[in-house]
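Per your request, structure below.
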């Protein structure tokens, strides 16, 4: 597991945890640790299947847009300032994935990135060839 401190200058009290075993066929996943500590923001964000630098950018931008726009995460919420003008979509993580350092009752919102046709994991005809993003 790789941990980086400070998502951004504006969200400096958070860390980013990247979990990847290069000897496994399991895609990596990355999540925030510390967003849920803010008053009124009892959630963390996560992505799956993305390399560290892209995951860092996506999570940082999503956290900043949610904070800047005073938005609460919601199922299917589209964020438009995360991925170079392409919208990303939020999804409440359903799986029982252990996230070290995160309380078991903390809501985790997965940030889904689209394929080149704008379809998301779970959508019909989503192109897995762009890189699988297992649904958490």
């Amino acid at each position: 597991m790789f941990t980086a401190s400070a998502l951004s200058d504006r969200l400096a009290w958070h860390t980013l945890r990247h979990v990847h075993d290069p000897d496994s066929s399991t895609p990596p996943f990355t999540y925030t640790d510390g967003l849920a500590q803010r008053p009124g923001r009892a959630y963390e964000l996560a992505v799956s299947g993305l390399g560290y630098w892209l995951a860092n950018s996506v999570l940082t931008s999503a956290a900043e847009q949610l904070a800047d726009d005073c938005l609460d995460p919601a199922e299917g919420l589209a964020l438009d300032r995360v991925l170079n003008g392409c919208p990303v979509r939020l999804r409440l993580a359903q799986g029982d994935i252990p996230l070290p350092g995160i309380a078991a009752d903390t809501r985790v919102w997965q940030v889904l990135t689209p394929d080149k046709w704008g379809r998301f994991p779970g959508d019909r005809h989503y192109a897995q060839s762009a890189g699988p993003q297992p649904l958490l």
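Residues 2-130 form one domain.

Regards,
D.
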